[in-house]
Amino acid sequence: MRLLNCPGSHAAEAATPREPETPDAVRDGGTLIHAAICGDERALAQLTPDQIETKEKCERLEFEAASKYIDIEDGSHSLTREERLWLHNDELEKIFSGQPDVIRISHERHVAVITDFKSGWAGAEPAEQNAQIMALAVLVANAFDVAMIYGIIVQPNAMQGPKVSVVEYGPGEIVTAERMLRAAIAKANQPDAPRASGEWCKFCRAKLNCMEFQSRALAVELYGQTSELSHEKLLTMFDHWTVVKGMGAQLESVLKRIIKENPEAFAGKLRITEGRNMPTVDPMKAWGALSEMMAPDEFIGCCKVSLTGLRETYHKNTGGTLKEAKEKLGRILGDAVTYKKSEGSLERI
Ligand code: SF4
Known about the structure:
The protein has about 350 residues and is α+β, with helices and mostly antiparallel strands. The protein is about 45% helix and about 10% strand. The mean pLDDT is about 90. The structure holds iron/sulfur cluster.
């Protein structure tokens, strides 16, 4: 959680206007999956087969993990999804909020299980080290009469870290966590709250005006100018880079907005180029027009077939679960599908 790591980010964000969000396939896909898990039919209808698979995995893993701490089958527990919870100060003013993806509570046993879904490829910190789960546990402890809280992170697509991790908060741990959270909130509300940059900067909209963040960018630049790059320096440079690389999209979005509002703002220095017209070829019409000029296998050689599209259509036509459709299609296609391994990406260990 950013507030614990960078108390100054609260004021920094408050002073930074929101920019219209640019489309982001991973973020937007995650929002759709979360909405579909919450029962939003319109979101469910928009999911691709891969997203449906992620949704189903999230639900299954959550069910399996939560079943270890609550008797789900007997139906005696309560279940809420995406309910916003608040923490109050002594004057009963709202000072902090959070929204667990799932809360299951056994009111008889005073046990709560909270789950946070991560649908992307980037693995989150395991639940035991995850400040967001800690804050959610404090919120749940304040909102319900519970003595034990289990915090679960479910991330079925994570390339690193466990798919499911759990942390246990007993009465003592809850008191300590609440003390930490309240101290962090108090610190964040100080006029001179310190800032500290790190991977939590990724979702902070104050990036472009933040010296602490920009010093990371400068560090990358300075290291880049050094003639001798030791392994140690390269590794430090990589750490800085993983934090600052998200700035590019935000910078581009701010600049585009300024130019759209005032085309003369950067006259002679910067402009938005013409968008490219991306061609889409209707294969049926193209074959109708070209069938006398090329052999069928030559034409097919120019066509790309989308495996996701095939899965989607096969699933729609044959019914059953997505998993069954995927497996059957895989058997039908056999060696018609070949795989080429891409080069792996860098991962800090
Ligand atoms: S960009 Fe990073 S360092 Fe700057 S305020 Fe936001 S979280 Fe803190």
